[in-house]
Specification:
alpha/beta, 22 strands
Length: about 575
């Protein structure tokens, strides 16, 4: 990965630019931030029980500060039966003992503050655990009670109510309804769960639910968090009457039903909830943020979620799903910047998270790869690991040159692939169980991290076996091994994150460099930096300029060519600077 390599080339300079947006220096750290997702149970196990913990996060925060990210987002660490890896919360204001204590959390916050890192925590407001005290009270109470009104209970249909109230399906497979036994021992009402049956949905038509989550927000804000990533933010409110739905369980389109009409997603009353939350966060100062995990389309509709009195950010799922299709990438980037600039909000960019196959594995396929949420098993077609890691590096370098905020998923800076050889008896994603193994679920992207090559469990923990096995291939990808190599994936991330900050690319401009955009290449200018990605099977000659960073080592004899599956940043001067 060469830096500041200047050369003269015969390829033409940029003659045609399509301007999309100007630089934006509006205040707000989140507008250009790089935010690193920590999945605590797989990050670092300090107490030796095989599961990552908050003390492990604290111990390795200096590594993240050295990576030069702005903030850390923690997936759930709250009290939970762990039926869905913590997204089944039984107490929103306490730490699950497998992760530590509230005191451990406070120590972690103090260390993050010392290092200049902000901490964002996951908020799970659509559903809780069936072990939550409120749901247990609902089960012990009769139909029509205040306790049941905290959730979505309905009478069944058909003879003696034996059929679910409607045809909605769970994201994890099977019906989205489960029937309960009443306090008198007889079969009773059904409750809604858009996810696992152990995750009952809250009834957001009830003001008591609003009050409870406002209390939760204040609890964590008082402990010093910088904001919240709001899980399934699009699903809290359901359409009146819970009408039947002919689309997919995820709200997507099928049989002619447009996804934006899904009765369980994107309801107008959601905006009132988030406006109330924004007021609470603003009362703590201008630097606390809300980020929506919102599966909302099209992009102009998503922009309604990040107006000045609602969320600060929303995840950009269309970008994640665009893959390496240059036409889709260009369209999504243009539409995102146009729609979000119109409401004064930054776009976000992401390639991996805890719910999808890692992009170093997805990009190891030519043609269609695994479906998101299904994972890769040993019986499936296997990705080309070297090709996937090469393309992943190129995609990351392309993404981090874009203006806006970027989210990184733990381990992507190491180029980690998915764990594939996970024995069935160790799989823990509820999707696997609810579909009888037809869908593998998300365990592969949640495999623990390798820290130190020579240590037990590659430095993840020194005690019991990790909750999911680390692949043998992770030994050569461990952080300490990569830190010692200037040609490693980790070194590339360090270089490009440092340059991103130095060049101010997160708050920069964007124009498409038309002479370098084709069916197999894509290029844009941000300030005076050209970002060029080549997906052709043949090398691509670059324009004259100074190479700042490239995603792969170049052949010294062909330094002015961009190899297949490679991205480079070039200082070209003039460009689209404002």
């Amino acid at each position: 990965m060469s830096v500041d390599t200047a050369f003269n080339a015969t390829a033409p300079l940029m003659d045609r630019l399509s301007h999309i947006r100007d630089a934006d220096n509006s205040p707000g750290w989140w507008r250009s931030a790089v935010i690193y997702q920590v999945y605590p149970r797989s990050f670092r196990d300090l107490n030796g029980d095989g599961i990552g913990d908050l003390a492990g996060v604290t111990a390795e925060l200096p590594q993240l500060a050295e990576l030069d990210v702005d903030a850390v987002w923690l997936s759930p660490f709250y009290k939970s039966p762990q039926r869905d890896a913590g997204y089944d919360v039984s107490d929103y204001c306490d730490v699950d003992p497998i992760f530590g204590t509230l005191s451990d959390f406070d120590i972690m916050i103090a260390e993050a503050n010392r290092l200049g890192l902000r901490v964002i925590v996951d908020l799970v407001p659509n559903h809780c655990s069936d072990q939550h005290v409120a749901f247990q009270a609902a089960l012990a109470s009769p139909a029509g009670s205040q306790e049941r009104d905290m959730f979505i209970f309905r009478d069944g249909v058909g003879p003696e109510g034996h059929e679910p109230p409607n045809n909605w399906q769970s994201h994890f497979g099977g019906p989205a309804w489960t029937r309960v036994t009443g306090p008198d021992g007889r079969q009773d009402q059904w409750y809604l769960h858009l996810f696992d049956s152990s995750q009952p949905d809250f009834n957001w038509d009830n003001p008591a639910v609003h009050a409870e989550f406002e209390r939760v927000l204040r609890f964590w804000l008082d402990r010093g968090v910088s904001g919240f990533r709001v899980d399934v933010a699009h699903a809290l409110v359901k359409a009146p009457g819970l009408p039947a739905w002919g689309g997919r369980a995820d709200g997507g389109s099928s049989d002619g039903f447009p996804g934006h009409e899904a009765p369980m997603f994107g309801q107008p009353a959601l905006h009132d909830i988030f406006r109330a939350w924004r007021l609470i966060l603003d009362s703590y100062g201008p630097d606390r943020i809300l980020c929506a995990e919102a599966n909302v389309d099209p992009l102009p509709r998503l922009a309604e979620w990040v107006r000045s009195d609602e969320m600060h950010q929303a995840f950009n799922f269309p970008y994640l799903h665009a893959g390496l299709d240059v036409y889709r990438l260009r369209s999504v980037i243009t539409d995102s910047l146009t729609a979000l600039d119109a409401v004064g909000a930054p776009s976000t960019w992401v390639l991996s998270n805890h719910d999808v196959v890692r992009h170093s594995s997805r990009f190891g396929y030519n043609g269609s790869g695994p479906r998101d949420g299904d994972g890769i098993g040993p019986a499936d077609p296997q990705p080309d690991t070297a090709l996937g890691r090469r393309r992943a590096a190129a995609a990351s370098l392309f993404m981090l040159g874009l203006p806006g905020a970027a989210y990184l998923y733990q381990g992507e800076e190491l180029g980690l692939p998915d764990g594939i050889d996970i024995p069935e008896h160790l799989r823990q994603d509820p999707t696997f169980a609810r579909t009888g193994g037809a869908r593998l679920g998300r365990d592969g992207c949640r495999v623990p991290l390798p820290w130190r090559t020579a240590e037990r469990h590659l430095g993840f923990g020194s005690g019991e076996d990790p909750w999911l096995p680390l692949p043998a291939s992770f030994a050569e990808l461990a952080r300490d091994a990569q830190a010692a190599s200037p040609a490693s994936h980790l070194s590339l991330y360090r270089n490009m994150l440092a340059l991103r900050r130095e060049l101010g690319l997160g708050s920069g401009s964007l124009a498409w460099a038309e002479d370098w955009c084709s069916g197999s290449s894509l290029a844009y200018i941000n300030g005076d930096t050209l970002v060029l990605m080549n997906l052709n099977h043949e090398p691509l000659e670059m324009p004259a300029g100074s190479v700042l960073v490239r995603s792969a080592d170049s052949d010294p004899g062909a330094a002015h060519f961009l190899a297949s599956g490679e991205t480079a940043w070039l200082r070209i001067g003039g460009g689209d600077a404002d």
